[in-house]
Write a structure and sequence with these properties.
The complex is a heterodimer of chains A (443) and B (434).
Chain A: H1 8-27, H2 35-50, E1 55-56, E2 61-62, H3 65-86, H4 97-121, H5 131-159, H6 165-196, H7 199-237, H8 246-260, H9 265-277, H10 287-290, H11 298-305, H12 307-315, H13 322-329, H14 351-365, H15 377-387, H16 394-406
Antiparallel strand pairs in A: 1-2
Helix pairs in contact in A: 1-4, 1-5, 2-3, 3-4, 3-6, 4-5, 5-6, 6-7, 8-9, 8-14, 8-16, 9-13, 13-14, 14-15
Chain B: H1 2-9, H2 19-42, H3 48-63, E1 66-68, E2 72-74, H4 76-86, E3 90-91, E4 94-95, H5 100-120, H6 127-144, H7 148-151, H8 159-192, H9 196-227, H10 231-235, H11 238-264, H12 267-270, H13 278-292, H14 297-308, H15 331-346, H16 352-360, H17 377-392, H18 398-410, H19 418-433
Antiparallel strand pairs in B: 1-2, 3-4
Classes of the chains: A mainly alpha (443), B mainly alpha (434).
Chain lengths: 443, 434
């Protein structure tokens, strides 16, 4: 949320919310507030707020303090819950003053409203031993709290133009399960607080903090995994100066197609790796074949034709890549059955392979090669269209062209190679300049 | 002669177990027999309702147990359920009274029930891991059950009384966790020939967090069921479900990462730069030597990565060096390959230590001038393992191995660390004995 230069509407909105919260705090009756648990909940709220968030997006974070807020809704009623929410004013996170004040006000409002709802719905005589009777009122209060919170935060993001309605919708969908889940742990704290006091939040939160550690580790390992894959792909690419960045671009193109045709997230992830790794097998092709000038002998061409299988040999052991394997193995098959290594045709070619094939050819055409300069994106598109139906699956070509309209294509580096760089004389990926094999006239 | 050799190799399964494992399983079996005998003498369980509900929770926990890095098995939900049952004071204010042996019986039944589906789909259960969980539950039950009459007298507990009870629960859970880790470390130190102290630290690092989470949940469900009712049990396992979900993903990503590095280390083989299987053999040998030298699990993982990728620098050479054996190339070439490889690995931005190890693999362990500090231990290990594998290939000839070892020993004034070469000799001794 950019603080300086907030539009007038946003200022008015902030002012309104803060004024409302301040009025509620000022006019509430503090006669039956139980101060000891309130202090405990306030400390818990701030302590939870200071540990790293469980779920962190660009504009919003879900921290464990959410559980403390919901516990205070049950334990303290509207006034107490409102006061605990107002503690967000004193957060230890480094945030600008406007944000601090606004967050304090909006959490206070959410606490008031949810506390009021819970008070109305809960059974007459609150009996802690009947946890089942508390579940429904709590669930409704939780829902109200989460909706208030999302509406108030969403409102300021929209008015301050920090997020478009579309982004807001996506983030809301991502955040809601987390908010509901972590909020519901508040009931557990509230349910045991009377019996065991400060032990209640400790025992409830400890597994969550451990989970949070594991989530962070998972993320770090995922990043490390991707960085390692990318680096090793680059190491493979050093064999040929002109193919620098090829793997990364093919990976990106494949993802563009996959997203365009509405693949599930898990499969999109798999194809991202498949695209990255599709040419690993090229390493098995002797350098002298790659760098040879003039037509190749049949044996040399066979070495090139085998590279998808070589790639498979390397990455077969990576467990998560099941479907990606077929994509790597058959990415040079053609729809008309004249591709390699197996000569599959039409629907026999796995979906992944048909996608990678399109992205692979397009990148090869729009990159510089030793025997020709790079073609423009428009020329590449024309060539894809020309070969669509023969070499490439028209559905995938169309999807790629649609995605290209929406998204820009990362232009390959067109600089001339330094004198010592290794370059190859032919490109097996380039459909517009097929590899010449001696003894075979028009291939 | 051949048949006798085969017979020796195909020993019955129980003979392949190490002593610590045998003792552990014997103890677990004795506990189960005693518990079942008591159950028969008692004519069934006391307070059957909580017994059933906790038994189901333990069974579900076993059903969803998971494999953690380092070949460990974890079942946090089952563990929490067993601890909670062992430390239960009352159900919604109504006193419960059962003996520690009943806790053991219920836990064992739950574990068996949760294991049956695994067996049905052909996954053989890890008996040692299950035995450890059972023993940990038994420790808690035996220590805590006698205290329940003192702690709960029929009146609802006041907050100070609860705090006393929780203090005891914490101490007993801690004792059980330490006992569990000690047994695990004993088994591990025997199985992989690590020193006990190091194995204990490894076990602690690997399982302390999960242990803490499941102990906390065990205590929480004991408290919640005592003050509320059995329905609370389901609600209060929610936090540990989150933990389980998070760790499952973490374990999966760790495994994938290792698989990827293993697979991609083979690009040098497919590219014809090194002999087939070289990277894998060097990494196995290095890890065995590292263990012999007392490295921790975290160090061993880095060693394994570095050993797998130690020849990656050759990719930057225009053509493979003949035969792929770096030990036979000139010192300058060796250093260049090491530097190129380290440069590639450094680019990942996450494997800095691995890059350092790879960079140091060509350095002599002692600078003749004595001015520069020697390379890291892991580099010295890889240097020796690589040289051994380059000279041996996949041959298993005993005389040749002895000759290669002698050659390394002869070169151990500056090139090869004598301590590392001796660890190699011990590893090879064991291999030939087996």
């Amino acid at each position: 949320m950019p603080v300086a230069g907030l539009p007038l509407a946003a200022w008015t909105y902030v002012g309104g919310v803060v004024a409302l919260a301040a009025t509620l705090v000022a006019t509430a009756s503090y006669a039956d507030v139980d101060w000891a648990p309130l202090a405990a909940m306030a400390v818990l709220f701030l302590a939870c707020d200071s540990v790293p968030a469980l779920l962190s997006l660009e504009r919003a974070r879900v921290s464990l303090s959410f559980s403390a807020s919901l516990a205070s809704v049950v334990l303290l009623g509207p006034v107490g819950a409102g006061l605990v929410g107002a503690c967000a004013l004193f957060t230890w996170q480094r945030v600008a003053l406007v944000k601090r004040v606004y967050n304090g006000a909006q959490f206070a409002l959410c606490g008031f409203v949810a506390g009021f709802v819970y008070d109305v719905l809960r059974p007459e005589a609150l009996d802690v031993s009947r946890v089942d009777r508390q579940i429904l009122p709590f669930a409704v209060a939780l829902l109200v709290y989460v909706m208030c919170n999302l509406a108030l935060v969403g409102g300021i993001l929209l008015l301050s133009k920090a997020a478009s309605p579309c982004e807001l919708r996506d983030e809301t969908i991502q955040l809601t399960p987390g908010l509901l889940g972590y909020g519901s742990f508040g009931l557990l704290i509230a349910g045991t607080f009377e019996a065991i006091g400060a032990f209640a939040p400790v025992l409830v939160m400890l597994p969550l903090l451990v989970a949070r550690w594991a989530f962070a580790q998972t993320l770090a390992q995922q990043r490390a995994h991707e960085a390692t894959l990318a680096t090793l792909c680059q190491a493979v690419e050093t064999k040929d100066y002109y193919t620098r960045g090829h793997s990364e671009r093919v990976s990106r193109g494949s993802v563009m197609i996959a997203e365009e045709i509405g693949m599930s997230r898990a499969r999109v992830e798999a194809i991202r790796f498949a695209g990255m790794l599709h040419d690993v097998g090229k390493l098995g092709v002797p350098t002298k074949v790659l760098q040879k000038e003039g037509p190749l002998t049949e044996e040399e061409f066979a070495a090139i034709q085998l590279h998808p299988m070589r790639g498979l040999e390397i990455i077969r052991e990576i467990g998560f890549l099941d479907e990606a394997l077929t994509g790597i193995m058959y990415h040079h098959e053609k729809l008309n059955g004249r591709g390699y290594p197996q000569g599959l045709a039409g629907d026999e070619i796995p979906e992944f392979a048909r996608i990678i094939g399109v992205a692979d050819a397009f990148d090869a055409m729009t990159s510089t090669r030793s025997y020709r300069p790079a073609r423009s994106v428009a020329e590449g598109v024309a060539e894809l269209r020309r070969c669509s139906g023969e070499d490439f699956d028209p559905q995938m070509v169309d999807a790629f062209l649609r995605a290209l309209d929406k998204d820009s294509w990362p232009a390959p580096d067109t600089a001339e190679p330094p004198a010592k760089a290794q370059t190859s004389r032919q490109d097996h990926d380039d459909p517009a300049a097929p590899i010449r094999v001696s003894g075979e006239g028009a291939w | 002669m051949v048949t006798r050799l085969q017979a020796a190799r195909e020993r019955p399964a129980w003979q392949q177990l190490d002593t610590a494992q045998l003792v552990l399983m014997g103890a677990a079996a004795a506990l189960v027999v005693a518990a079942l005998a008591w159950l028969a003498a008692n004519g069934g369980v006391d307070d059957p309702q909580p017994a059933i509900v906790f038994g189901v929770l333990i069974a579900l926990g076993e059903l969803f147990r998971m494999n953690m890095p380092g070949g460990r098995e974890a079942a946090p939900i089952s563990r929490a359920g067993a601890l909670g049952y062992g430390m239960l004071l009352s159900v919604g204010g109504d006193p419960v009274s059962y003996s520690p042996l009943q806790v053991i019986a219920v836990t064992a039944c739950g574990m068996v029930a949760g294991t049956l589906p695994h067996v049905a789909v052909g996954r053989s259960p890890r008996l040692d891991a299950m035995a450890r969980r059972l023993v940990a539950a038994a420790v808690v039950a035996i220590l805590f059950r006698p205290l329940t009459d003192v702690l709960f007298t029929g009146e609802p507990l006041t907050q100070p009384q609860w705090l006393t009870a929780l203090g005891l629960m914490t101490a007993i859970s801690l004792a059980a966790a330490l006992a569990d880790m000690t047994v695990a470390a004993l088994i591990r130190s025997e199985a992989v020939r690590a020193r006990f102290g190091i194995a204990f630290v490894d076990e602690f690092r690997a399982s302390a967090l999960l242990c803490a989470a499941s102990s906390a949940t065990g205590m929480l469900i004991a408290v919640a069921t005592s003050v509320m009712d059995l329905a609370a049990l389901l609600l209060f396992t929610a936090p540990i479900l989150t933990t389980q979900f998070a760790f499952r993903r973490y374990a999966a990503v760790r495994t994938t990462y290792l698989q990827t590095v293993r697979a991609l280390s083979r690009v040098t083989e497919v590219g014809g730069y090194v002999e087939t299987g070289h990277s894998l053999r060097v990494s196995r040998l290095s890890v065995a030597m590292g263990r012999e030298l007392g490295m921790t699990e975290a160090e061993l993982l880095e060693l394994e990565y570095a050993a797998l990728m130690h020849d990656i620098g050759q990719l930057s050479l225009p053509d493979p060096i003949p035969g792929g054996a770096t030990v036979l190339s000139s010192p300058e070439d060796q250093r260049r390959i090491a530097d190129l490889g380290a440069a590639v690995i450094e680019q990942t931005g996450v494997l800095d230590m691995v890059a350092r190890i790879v960079r140091g693999q060509s350095d002599p362990y002692r600078d003749p001038a004595g001015s520069r500090p020697g390379p890291p231990l892991a580099s010295r290990v890889i240097k020796a393992a690589n040289a051994y594998d380059d000279l041996m290939g996949d041959s298993r000839d005993r005389d040749r191995a002895a000759a290669v070892l002698d050659r390394l020993r002869a070169d151990s004034e500056y090139q090869y660390d004598p301590a590392v070469v001796e660890s190699l000799a011990r590893v090879l001794d064991r291999r030939i004995l087996r």
